[in-house]
Amino acid sequence: MTVQASLSGRLTLPTARAYAGFPSRRPGAGVLLDAFAQHRGWWGYHWAPPRPLSITQIIASGSLDAELAALLWLLVEGRVPVVVAAEPPLAGKTTTLTALMDFLPPGTRKLFLRGWVEDFDWLPDADKLGWAGWEAAMPTEGQPDAMDPETWDRQAIMRRRLMTERERRSSGGQADPDHTYLLISELSSHLPVYTWGVQARVAVRALQRGYGLGTSLHADSLEEVFAQLQAPPVSLSEDEIRRLGVVIVLRLVGPHGDTLVFPEGSIEAEIAPLQPSVRRRAVAVHYLRPLERDGKGHLQRRPPAVLATWDPETDCFEHFAWGVTSELADRVGRAPVDFERQHAARTTFLRGLVESGVHSIPDVRRAITHYREGAGTEPGQRQRRRDDPEHHHHERHR
User: How many domains, the chain?
Assistant: First the structure.
């Protein structure tokens, strides 16, 4: 059930911060933002400052459970792309995505895209993927994303200002797809730091070169994700969207499991989600099967698989990844038996961290590092183009 929610009484900004456990802005106060704070706008712009959470804090809150988090660990470690979708703001999209990035294999380069000023200088063949330069990226009259001259002038000024971001970020030349994970704070046109239009299209197409990708999107279902990315100005094909790997759909829910909806653009939408009675749940997690070829070389387009859903009656997750274990194992370059063993072991490990009260981000990161060292699960090896139809055709005919 979906309910239209509203604030009872007056909730001020200081009160909202207190609800969420946010620190005040007194001198010296702060939160752990590390590398993600270096990218302007990664956390968006809200009344309250960001509050990063570790994966164990997210599990303890009930947004995910240990079994689902362990599955995502294996997939992110294999650099499978991840999209975290939610319709309302403050539903936990960026918080969840940031915590999952701790599962990336050591040595992975996190490459933050630069929104409106992204020029793909790191992408070897950007032109072949549809990037024709700034002039082609400008919306023109009659296009669905066309802007009036005054709006475009303001954006042009903003682009010039944001170009200083390029000076801060050493591109280091072209990015090696085998060791690079692209990060986009949000797929939308809402802010200059977000990515949309032709830049979003080229970024998703870059996945066919072997890059990983982590991003977020304002959408309430997998169907909405497809609809937004297929429509102009992004205009991706269904086959291109299939490369996005995992789609996590988050919702705000009330104490009785009802989905909460706040008036769009209202003060309630910015503050009400911070109340302690409002919870966040991954209501559905999908695996998008990439386009592939069968043993005879025929193209196959299989429907997305559901990895997990959340039951509002029990406030528990139902898991279905067992039905596609062999596919997931192949995607990350593991044998199915090893994938199942690692999934079970990491589920137990994460549960143990939660039960032991290991919640701070530095402590969780150290624990993950120690687990990898002790379990001998240093990844580092990636199966070549697991989402490339030609790769699958070649593998089946070796």
Answer: 1
